[in-house]
């Protein structure tokens, strides 16, 4: 019943986004995903990653067959595109395999095996649909929110010492090596999430069931809920609002001033400014920070290599979001609080809502709301009193982290102490 309700709600949400996108003359998430059955996919890596998630419910023999079929279909598509001199891409075969498994589940499976295979197909498709949904959300923000609130965040960011301007100069000083590395990390965040998810779901094919909670759920909820906040607090980011950028991209003639990353913006009363109808208003909160935080949390129980990778991805993502001018420092603080609140809510839902879970979610929600209100209505006070508001912002984030860690420790199963051997009498 829960899966049926979730499926109907997801379908209704996708239809609503499809209609909204059509109003602006562009395909919505459902149309975009359907087009990739035949036309060149936007991201072949993402399609194969989604297929990898689906194959977790298959046996090893079935996985090799599915992978071989996907690669074979892709070879055919590549040859046809090469013959027709069309745009080269790959990933159609992966999508065909996922859809084929859905057909097999409905026609050749029954009972628990059908449900398990359909869950695997749904998990794989949701990963791709989440990406398409995010793209549609960004389109809607740029079309429906002509005024942006970047001056408010730029003023509030003085409380943190303008970290985007500082890190932007540091990244530029690293040259092309550091820039390309951070750009790759930033762009492949979903792939990193799949790696962690594959470890968490590695026993599905043996146990024939999914664990109660895993990273994919948190990732998808963050991606669905987060863009709604973009509509409330539309922001384009420092590189677009305050300059053409150190890396050849930026706001050009729409920028308020060409200041990033060399000159921090002056402290002056902020006001909304008009911006173009193309650039997404996707800064508040920083969803890349929220996703990287979720990856970090879910990698903590993995082997040392996975824990190291989760830590690296979090640090590199924070550096990239600031160093490329995509976010202000206050965005990152809001992103961390947002991620922890979503994670706590999902875990509380799985366990059954108790007092500790309700208090954690309520506290995280209250802190997140307080951050948004302060950024909107107290930016001048934050800019003129940085030694007061800077520590307060960091303390607010740290308090949410502390409450989350304390709450989740209560949910961990108690480990029995290792029995000590009884002392044995020694022979005389």
Report on the architecture of this protein.
This protein has helices at residues 2-23, 29-35, 44-54, 60-84, 92-108, 111-144, 150-156, 163-173, 175-187, 189-200, 204-207, 215-232, 238-241, 287-298, 304-323, 329-351, 355-377, 379-384, 386-411; strands at 147-148, 273-274. The chain is an all-alpha fold and 428 residues long. Strands 1-2 form a two-stranded antiparallel ribbon. It is globular. It starts with a helix and ends in a 17-residue tail after the last helix.
Structure at a glance:
69% of the residues lie in helices and 1% in strands. It has helices at residues 2-23, 29-35, 44-54, 60-84, 92-108, 111-144, 150-156, 163-173, 175-187, 189-200, 204-207, 215-232, 238-241, 287-298, 304-323, 329-351, 355-377, 379-384, 386-411; strands at 147-148, 273-274. Strands 1-2 form a two-stranded antiparallel ribbon.
Summarize the topology.
Blueprint: H1 2-23, H2 29-35, H3 44-54, H4 60-84, H5 92-108, H6 111-144, E1 147-148, H7 150-156, H8 163-173, H9 175-187, H10 189-200, H11 204-207, H12 215-232, H13 238-241, E2 273-274, H14 287-298, H15 304-323, H16 329-351, H17 355-377, H18 379-384, H19 386-411
Antiparallel strand pairs: 1-2
Helix pairs in contact: 1-6, 2-6, 3-5, 3-6, 3-10, 4-5, 5-6, 6-12, 8-15, 9-15, 10-14, 12-14, 12-16, 14-15, 14-16, 16-17, 16-19, 17-19
